[in-house]
Amino acid sequence: MKRIIKLFGILVLAGSLCVAGAAGYFYMDYQNWLQSPIESGSDDITAFTIAPGSSFAAVKNTLNNAGLLNNARYFDLHIRYYKLGAKIKAGEYDMPRNKPPTTLIDKIVNGHVATAEVTIPEGLLITEIVPRFVEAGILSRAEGDRMQKIALDPASPKRYGFTSPTLEGYLYPETYRFARGVKAEAVLKEMTGRVKALWSDAFSKRAKEWNMTQNQIMTLASIIEKETGAPVERPMIGSVYHNRLRIGMRLQADPTVIYGVKNYNGNITRKHLQTDHPYNTYTRKGLPPGPIASPGGDAIKAALWPATSKNLYFVSMNNGRHKFSTNYVDHKKWVDKYQRRGVKAPPVKP
Q1: Which CATH number fits domain 38-113: 3.90.190.20, 3.20.20.390, 3.30.2170.10, 3.30.1490.480?
Q2: With contact defined as beta carbons under 8 Å apart, do 291 and 219 qualify?
Q3: Could you report the per-residue pLDDT of 283-337, keeping only the tens digit for each?
Q4: For 305-324, b where at least 16 C-beta lie within 10 A, e where not — what string?
């Protein structure tokens, strides 16, 4: 009997050791999976999307279809043991295949969604800005359409804290980085927020000294932005328009006329200049109702702090710069030289 009991004890011990050994092997294999690349030696990045409201089963199916679950059992056990299923975030993701499952799990649990960058240069219209966000993959085409609709809605400026006909001019030109697939409102909030951040108390004080509203300053800044690509000229362009406003002279700014023309083909005509509309500064005195493009910080500053001059006119010298004049006689002379005879001034060093 003693021999039987002893044998039974040996068998139990052996069984326990086998179980312990199996458990140890399982744990080591699981840890190895957790830390090893999903696909060793691969430089590929796999994009996948977790739809809002996805169940854990749907998430696993998405990852499996993307080829990112090289051990679905371990993935399932890890998520369930640490109770991470409810923490998985919807969104668009990029997953390098040479990274381990820990990276994948961290991304989807903490919402490290894929991002994209886009640069919006100065002087663009809303209809030119929106497509850049779509092309960058930040907005879907449908959200791009929504963004444009919201931005051009006369009711939108009040919601974003401005008094203007639309949000034209208030989508600040800058480099932006967003998660791919964001909503139009997120982009609009960020872009208009940049204008608010720039518009300091000093700006408000200076606008008041000119007896001008923020919208009038932004409108003037947008005209300055469209009139020259040379930063050094912006204060002088600002001076010309301030001088004209002061004496009641029409601004006669071609970019404002163009803004009011539907399907403009690139050639401004006499008919365009003579056709009256709210943005035609040849037929109407003063500033148009709102900005005609998005001005950058330098153009806004040029509208607030223009150069000191008596200039009332300027004409392109065909080299990226303008010739300024204080009187119409001199202006006609420069127009004849640079526009009618097509003389091109020497290039200007940057």
Answers
A1: 3.30.1490.480
A2: yes
A3: 999 999 999 999 999 999 999 999 999 999 999 998 889 999 999 999 999 999 9
A4: ebbeeebbbbbbbeeebbbb
Question: 287: phi > 0 → left, psi -120 to 50 → alpha, else beta; which?
Answer: beta
Residue 69 and residue 76: Cα distance in Å, rounded?
10
Check residue 343 and give its pLDDT: 80
The β-bridge relationship of strands 115-119 and 175-179 is antiparallel
| Residue 193 to residues 164, 175, 225, 266, Cα–Cα distance (Å) | 16, 14, 20, 32
CA 253 vs CA 21, 109, 260, 315: distances in Å = 84, 54, 12, 11
CA distance 287 to 22: 82
Give Cβ neighbours of residue 181 (< 8 Å, ≥ 6 apart): 49, 91, 92, 113, 138, 139, 140, 143
Q: How far is CA 64 from the centre of its chain?
A: 33
Q: Which regions of the chain carry the CATH code 3.30.1490.480? A: 38-113
Domain spanning 116-198 has what CATH number?
3.30.1490
Query: Residue 96 is encoded by which pair of tokens?
Result: 């390098």
Residue 280: CA count within 13 A, CB half-sphere: 15
With a CB cutoff of 8 Å and minimum separation 6, the contacts of 308 are 239
Q: What is the pLDDT of residues 70-107, one digit of tens each?
A: 999 999 999 999 999 999 999 999 999 999 999 999 99
Is pLDDT at 14 greater than 50 in this prediction?
A: no
Which residue, chain included where needed, has tokens 């010739």?
Answer: 323
Residue 23's pLDDT band (cuts 50, 70, 90): low
Which residue type sits at 112?
A: H
Which amino acid would we find at residue 318? Answer: N
Tokens of 298: 């330098």
